[in-house]
Write a structure and sequence with these properties.
The protein is α/β, with parallel strands linked by helices. It is built from 18 helices and eleven strands. The termini are far apart. It binds adenosine-5'-diphosphate and magnesium ion (MG). It comes from Deinococcus multiflagellatus.
């Protein structure tokens, strides 16, 4: 069933009544009556009269209620009214966004619930002289607000858990539009930006919050939010400087540098001393370097964990730290954590640490295959470029690495800039 089929009440945000998708013109008090009946069920006439005409005596209020029923019929919703001498109700087939949102939450379908989050309950609906209705609206709005945030949080968390950070960000942004001062949401927005490799946007989200808090409350952000901002600052300060060749200037590599810069994923093959390291570091400028080392080859994620140890966990998003710390405490320990979760956390850490710069994997021929997988996943998750260097003879002897390389090799469309070994000829 589409959201518009039958009589449908949109109560979240600016309210609207539709019949089979077409908007009905229902004036303020009639809409208030509809919304109340839709959410509260059958209600005695005297309760409704006091609800909507709180400022009038009982007789006048009951007369007004009768007029209101006529108006509802004139609006085209008469067929959905169940009218008796003592009470009013709506047909059970009338649908309400808030009820459907709550039902989706109860079913454990946060995505469907989040799709219905539309804003403040009965926003901009004017109902003069109805103090009792205002009390009800206030209480319902508060509960609806919390339900919507719950739905948006849960849906965004599900997206984040699946690594769909853009969708997670979108959900958190909608939650933020409901409550711009909710710091938990601001931190989630910042985290999502960091996971997407957008630290400048994370900083902008923080600054917007800070400005609003100063204006509206004369206070600053909470310590947890300030701590996250400090991490963003550290990321914006850039990755640890890559080893820059000193002394002799680079000779005769302009064309190779230019060619390398056009590739997103490139493997530079060449014998020891031929100039691979020099080429990729010159071409990349600022870069994060993961280095393969013979001693680390047998350790799953050995090269990557070494990098994390030296780069410092404080530069990784807070939410990743428990998994990363556990991995650092006992690298390669069986049953340490779900392997997929660890791979995902390490890839996200790489995206953060790269902060928009190139990721260089040096001496691939000594790398452990898990680190290579994490680097590929990081490329998928937002690292702009991944360049690998290796000695061809040693790499040919590494069947485990070849297997990982081969898995991605055929996906020319997913890796549009995949370049076959091109350097040196
Ligand atoms: N094009 C070049 N111009 C000047 N020096 C170079 C050039 N290519 C390499 N070198 C120097 O040669 C040495 C070996 O290069 P390197 O990049 O470490 O080789 P590889 O990584 O292939 O083993 C380094 O001192 C490097 O600075
Ligand atoms: Mg080298």
């Amino acid at each position: 069933m589409t959201p518009q089929a039958g009589l449908y009440l949109k109560t979240l945000g600016v309210p609207q009544v539709t019949l089979d998708g077409a908007a009905l013109d229902v004036p303020g008090k009639s809409l208030a009556l509809l919304a109340y009946l839709a959410l509260e069920g059958q209600t005695p006439r005297e309760v409704l009269a006091d609800l909507l005409w709180t400022d009038q005596d009982e007789g006048a209020a009951r007369r007004n209620l009768r007029v209101q029923v006529h108006r509802l019929r004139a609006c085209g919703v008469g067929a959905w009214l169940e009218v008796s001498g003592s009470a009013l109700a709506l047909c059970p087939s009338v649908r309400v966004d808030l009820t459907e949102l709550r039902a989706a939450l109860a079913r454990g379908e946060p995505g469907q619930a989040a799709a219905l989050a539309g804003g403040r309950f009965l926003d901009h609906l004017g109902v003069p002289g109805a103090a009792t209705f205002e009390d009800w609206r206030e209480a319902t709005a508060q509960a609806a607000f919390e339900d919507q945030l719950r739905a948006l949080d849960a849906a965004a968390a599900a997206h984040a858990g699946a690594g769909h950070w853009a969708a997670a960000l979108e959900g958190h942004r909608r939650a933020l539009s409901l409550d711009p001062l909710r710091e938990r949401t601001v931190r989630a927005v910042m985290d999502a930006h960091l996971a997407l490799g957008q630290p400048a946007d994370a900083l902008a989200a923080y600054e917007t919050l800070e400005r609003r808090l100063r204006q509206e409350l004369g206070a600053g952000p909470l310590p947890a939010t300030a701590a996250l901002k400090a991490q963003v600052d550290a990321l914006l300060a850039g990755p640890a400087p890559s080893p820059r060749p000193a002394g002799v200037p680079l000779v005769g590599r302009e064309a190779d540098c230019a060619a390398l810069r056009t590739g997103r994923l490139t493997l530079v093959l060449g014998e020891a001393g031929v100039g691979k390291t020099r080429l990729v570091t010159e071409a990349a400028g600022d870069a994060l370097v993961v280095r393969g080392a013979a001693e680390l080859t047998p350790l799953p994620y050995g090269a990557l964990l070494d990098l994390l140890r030296s780069a410092g966990l404080h530069r990784c998003p807070e939410r990743l730290r428990p998994v990363l710390s556990a991995a650092l405490a006992a690298p390669g320990a069986p049953g340490l954590t779900d392997r997929a979760a660890l791979l995902d956390a390490l890839a996200q850490a790489l995206v953060s640490l790269c902060s928009g710069h190139t990721l260089i994997v040096e001496d691939l021929h000594w790398l452990d295959p898990s680190t290579l997988e994490a680097a590929f996943l990081a490329l998928h998750r937002g690292v702009p470029r991944l360049w690998l260097t290796a000695r061809p003879g040693e790499l040919a002897a590494r069947a485990d690495l070849q297997a990982v390389l081969a898995r991605l090799d055929p996906r020319a469309s997913r890796w549009p800039n995949w370049a076959r070994p091109r350097w040196p000829a």
